[in-house]
Amino acid sequence: MKYKLLGRSGLKVSELCLGTMGFGTDNGWGADAATSFDIMDEFAGAGGNFLDTANVYQKGTSERIIGDYLANQDRDYFVLATKYTLKDNQTNPNASGNNRKNMMRSVEESLKRLKTDFIDVLYLHIWDDITPIDEVLRGLDDLIRQGKVTYAAISDTPAWMVAKGNTLAELMGWSQFIALQVEYSLLQRTPERELIPMAKHFGMTVTPWAPLGGGALTGKYLKGDTGRVKPESNRRNENSERITKVVMEVADELGVSAGNVALQWMRQQGFSCIPIVGATKLSQLKDNLKTTSLILSDEHLKKIDEASAVPLGFPGDFFKEENVRINSFGGFYDRVEKRS
């Protein structure tokens, strides 16, 4: 794999990130430790160095497995990202949320499970709509100054709050968010309305989770695999099936897997994007790694885009309306005059 800079930083990470939510079987599914080790070996052997986990994945077992693995590896080779926010125990009312107390406690617990002195990238996992953003930013900056965290990032948070946070951080001289993790795939393109344009503006790398729509875009549900996704899920409805069939058609034309096409589509969308590819089987990772050698033509991109596009709403669709020329003063007002 090639390496890319993560956001507005000098941190070099592999062009695919390994998602480890399935490392462990505490939630009734996933990969055991031996299989998880094999997956990480394969990933590292292909040049992968970017690992993504969280304090709550498999009730902490994901972090423990990674910690056991890294204990016998070159720790500095890997860029390790984890998250805080979600409740990982029942000890106190502040064992969840974005507050500083939970942040500090959660990081200390993650460091123990990961058997490391520092976390390369710490994500706020999900916005709690309670904690002031300046409390979050100051806490993250303190952890960075202490050397326990190297970079700050954010996940599953409204675009306006992320924008407010990075603007405040720039003003105060605090560490800014360098990456944004959100659900994004051909089945979930709504981040194109606000989140992705915001990330581009601030030079943030987008690290999509569920880039294959929970496996739906591989075509497995069309082939009879019921999986863990509920039938009424938007990953298993008429729209998702229609989109997946188009992806499969393109894949057949190119002689590659549907998953490769779905991943590469997002990597060619004109913004810094590093998909998080989860795997509980070695075969899944091996197939995902083939994505890095695939380039989609303009025709294929157009075909997939037309099949999966979502309304941008206002003002996105307004900006795209025919005859509106944002960069042409006269053209814009010609349109206004016609309307009036």
From TrEMBL:
Q: Which residues cross the membrane?
A: none
The record's GO CC annotations read: cytosol
Q: Name one Pfam family in it.
A: Aldo_ket_red
Arranged from A to Z, the UniProt key words for this protein are: Oxidoreductase
Give this protein's Gene Ontology molecular function annotations: oxidoreductase activity
PANTHER family hit by this protein: NAD(P)-LINKED OXIDOREDUCTASE SUPERFAMILY PROTEIN (PTHR43364:SF4), NADH-SPECIFIC METHYLGLYOXAL REDUCTASE-RELATED (PTHR43364)
Q: Under which name does UniProt file this protein? A: Aldo/keto reductase
Species of origin reads: Mucilaginibacter mali
